[in-house]
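Consider the following assembly input.
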Amino acid sequence: MGDPRILVVGAGLAGLAAAAELACAGHQVLVVDQARQPGGAVHRQPLPGARSLASPAQARRWRALMADVDAQGARIEIACNTRFGGVDHTGTVLLTGDAAALLQPQALVLAVGAREKVQPRPGWTLPWVTTAGALQVEIKTTSEPPAGRVLLAGSGPLLLALGAELVRLGQPPVAIIEAARPFSHPLQSLALPPPYMVEAARHLARLVRARVPVFTGAALTRISEHEGALLAEIATRKGSLGLAADRICLHDGIRPNDTGLTDSTALPVLRLGDCREALGAAAALADGRAGGAALAARLAGLPAPAASSALAREALAQARLARIYAHDSAAALAALPADTVICRCENRTRADLDALGPSPTTRQLRLDGRFGMGACQGRFCADWVARLARPDAPQPLGIPRWPARPISVAELLAAPDLTSGEFE
Amino acid sequence: MSGQIFWNGTALPYRPGETVATALTRAGVLRFGVAPGGQARGIFCGIGQCQGCLVQVGARLTEACLLPCRDGLMVSDAGGPQHG
Ligand code: FES
């Protein structure tokens, strides 16, 4: 017997909005999240006693969503510290952690958000070189600045936002290195929806007041360790310079966090929010609501509701942002020196990739090159390997295997099997 | 009711609700283990995706960035990701 519940993976904006819609239609919903509290990346909650860094608008949005969830009472159950291990061809889902189980839900909603794109650079594997998102997790939970000097590099609006947050915490970054030239597109910027403009203006004002150097059209080309600190080599439009820092945060945009999210023909599987298309917070909320309502209609045999106009608006805004932040990342990739590590898990370099010869096949890349075969299943190298191997026609680096993440035998044994027998 | 975790046998304080990764970060620990190429590993993505922050808890390797601290938890640095 199948489980009558609908399983939602991810208690961020998209997942909870979908859960609220489904519960409102009378369904029993189990929402799981790997973190210790709902919130997702955008609304990550502070530790007990730490103050929230959320803006008033962000706090309002979260409170409103949680009120919708609470209004559904026992129809929505939220289990934290619980991870999704994948779904197989029989429709069986493996959960590990606090709510460990093997179960066959009526439907599966995947709302696991985005992850960051980080272009490989020599030295990007050194300790204390992290993603910008990793630092954001730290400061959102502790509301404390990190120890030491921080350098932010890469491309995308998150760099300015994180820089401004560091200023607010009394620890301005050493500099922000932005590959694009976002300030040279005033007309595109003016066409952005007002909330984007207000936020950007607030961040910039903070950075300017704290005199944080922002280099645009610039790239961090190498990181090395020097006298107990990190040394960043930076190519600017006016020449090169070196900057010392204790921590370097890299970020080159976001992408759907879709590795290992296989489909199953045994049950309806839906992807909602950033893991379907990375369009940001407002879109994730709209997509979650629309997707939840559409799934409820489908399960009831009703026609699909009309598509959300909010989603289309956000997609347009994100396309504008992408144009504002456009830059030649292909040139930077092509110029990577031979000793650059591409696959972080298995320490495979540009030279290892080139040794496979011109236009290697996916099979060669995986079996001979061992690219995409490490513990992260290519989450941080597959896109770059594909682009380096065939710059004109990148091919996906193959399909990740079940489970979606490394799972110990002990975790597997600890998961009670709820797939057999009558479900109560 | 915060307590302490043990990192390679050394007691470190933590705050209720925080992950092993944040507790180690505050204590200045950057190196969580060794990657196959011999280079040091540590926190990278912060969200359970990169496997850079694997630490050893009992017999198993697990992501420090997702592991909640609890009083008396014994954590040690792990070698490289285990194969086979
Ligand atoms: S820092 Fe990437 S998995 Fe923990």
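The first strand of chain A starts at residue 6 and ends at 9. Ask yourself how this observation constrains the way the partners meet.
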